[in-house]
Specification:
By secondary structure, this protein is mainly beta. The protein contains 1 helix and 4 strands, in the order H-E-E-E-E. The protein has one domain. The protein starts with a helix and ends in a 26-residue tail after the last strand. The relative contact order is 0.19.
Length: 94
């Protein structure tokens, strides 16, 4: 009985699942593009410091971001940020 319980528990590392908190259900997900106005979304990059704690490290990297203007209102400055975390980020997630 103890062996059954040991194999039923997901493998953990540092208090979390070995493969992270990603969901296999989101991988290779297809989005119905007929519902999306292609002129209202896209992506870009922001130059970020690689190491914010070392002033001598001048290395940078390009952080990718996605935007969606489909529900934008001219009289509003509301912005929503979605952090994909360990998930694969793509334009289909916004």
């Amino acid at each position: 009985a103890l062996a059954t319980v040991a194999f039923a528990v997901p493998p953990m590392f540092g208090g979390r699942r070995k493969e992270g908190f990603t969901s296999h259900l989101l991988e290779n997900r297809k989005v119905d593009t007929s519902l999306i106005d292609e002129n209202s979304f896209g992506s870009g990059t922001i130059t970020q410091k690689l190491d914010h704690f070392d002033e001598n490290n001048k290395n940078n990297w390009q952080q990718r971001y996605f935007f969606n203007y489909q529900f934008k209102q001219d009289d509003s400055n509301v912005n929503i940020i979605y952090i994909s975390g360990e998930q694969i980020a793509s334009d289909s997630t916004i």
